[in-house]
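INTERNAL AUDIT FORM
Audit reference: QA-55
Scope: verify that the stored structure record matches its stored sequence.
Auditor: D.O.
Record contents follow.
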Amino acid sequence: MTAKFLILVLASALCSTAAANARTVEFSEAELYFELNDSAGDLGIHSSIDGGPYTTLEIEDARGRVVLWMGAFGQLAQQGMTQFFLESAEPSFAELAPAAFFRRFPEGTYDIEAVGRRGVRFEAEVELSHVMAARPGHITSNGIPAVDCDAPTLPSISAPVIVDWDPVTQSHPTVGKSGPVEIVRYEFFAEREGVKFSVQLPPTVTEFEIPAEVLALGDEFKFEIIARTASGNNTAVEACFLLD
């Protein structure tokens, strides 16, 4: 057996061993979704990925085009990555119309893949939908209709404050495409004086009493209600009031 042939045999054996040892596992979390702020009039794409450790991460769109690639080097590659959250820029509709936004990110199956040390691969397939939920409607605070935060006059409300809204049952009338909508949860979110507060509510609950300690953060109060669909897409609406 010649030395050259021996080298080829050893290389083939090593490759076969590496292939046998390599394994593919699912991410513990893999989300890719759109978020619409219906009050501000903007759209963005978000992702939340967990699992690993891995050294490179790639996302391919429904047409097989790479839309994200990132890798770790040096000490970070030795350590490995496990959690990743992406929130894109969200230009206004005047800068980027919804139709143009959705052309950038076509519907369909997006592949998320990562490679870890010792050949371990992590993967997931995520379905991205252009069906957005309608905004939560008929929002009131203590029975007073809610207004956008840029309204010339904000309503004055006394504590305790209960916010309620109509259930979301339809797709958005102007953004995205029409289709069936299943709301899996609502989220009530507020941020004041650097303090963030959020609570997730089941789809059957469409009212929430704002805790007194949250109201105590300031006289002008801004809140956000987010409706999340079974496909993962979010539609948010903002409102403000003055606390008596």
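Auditor finding: record pair retrieved intact. Helices lie at 3-21, 74-79, 98-104, 212-215.
Action required: none
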